[in-house]
Amino acid sequence: MASFAIFTPNSINILAGINGIEVSQSIVIACLIILNDLLYLSPFTPHPHPAMDSHLFSLYLLIPFIGVSLALWWHNWYPAKVFVGDTYCYFAGMVFVVVGILGHFSKTLILLLLPQIFNFLYSCPQIFLIVPCPRHRLPHFNARTGLMEPSTIVFEKPLPKYVQKVMKLMHNLNLLRIVVDDRGEVTESSNFTIINLWLVWWGPMREDRLATTLLSFQAIIGMLGLFIRHHLALLIFTADNLYVV
């Protein structure tokens, strides 16, 4: 639970850097959790369901949370008039931690946080300073085109050979964009965040379109997570509490 409480707020905080992305991903995750709650409270489940109180508790917290977040989203969406700082990211993450732990569905919440988990794992080389990490890794705004492009870091010192080999492999797999000099040394690469990777995959795009496509990805992965939880859980667990009588 301690690891979960530390990871979740920070996972919201590091998937950031463009207008609206922090509050929007929180709203999407909250809506997915509410959908999960409703699946336990719907007419298709046995009543009274053993998990009913836990999911009612989740609804009591998340409905006002979405209301507050929508007010912030209105002013934070591109072009933003106000900006989201660490305070909201940690607040949103802790709301999810509280409902996940006290509602006894932390494993389900992990499925809804798969994009954040991937972003953390993808960021690990810079987070743990295997590759130099700038203070901010937000994508680069090209003033001439008005589009967002992958931000890069230039390496002042040669990287270890094994790190360069991994980065070249990632480049070949289209998981990174690197620049190599005449000697074959990696001198520059895109930053290790899912936002920059998205721009590597799909090319430069407007900031609002970038945020919208990332949020669509969040929603699709979340729906897939709910499908796994409610239809494939018996392949992993001995019982699925959706069908407890």
Short description:
The longest helix is centred in the N-terminal third of the chain and has 25 residues. The protein has 245 residues and is mainly alpha-helical. The mean pLDDT is 91.
Topology:
Blueprint lengths: L1 H13 L6 H21 L10 H25 L9 H17 L3 H7 L1 H14 L12 E3 L4 E3 L2 E3 L6 H12 L5 E3 L5 E5 L3 H9 L4 H25 L14
Antiparallel strand pairs: 1-2, 3-5, 4-5
What does the model show?
The chain is mainly alpha-helical and 245 residues long. It has two domains: 162 residues, no CATH class; 73 residues, no CATH class. It contains nine helices and five strands, in the order H-H-H-H-H-H-E-E-E-H-E-E-H-H. The strands form two sheets. A three-stranded antiparallel sheet has the order 3-5-4. The protein has a two-stranded antiparallel sheet with strand order 1-2. A hairpin with a 5-residue loop joins strand 4 and strand 5. Helix 2 runs parallel beside helix 4 and helix 2 packs parallel to helix 9. It is globular. The model has no long low-confidence stretch (mean pLDDT 91).
Structural class assignment? mainly alpha
Percentage of residues in strands: 5-15%
Shape descriptor: globular
Number of domains: 2
Helix and strand run: HHHHHHEEEHEEHH
**Strand numbers in spatial order across the main sheet:** 3-5-4
Helical fraction: 55-70%
In whole angstroms, the N-to-C terminal distance is 28 Å
Largest sheet: 3 strands, antiparallel
Low-confidence stretches: none
Nearest-angstrom radius of gyration? 20 Å
Annotation, overall tally of beta strands:
5
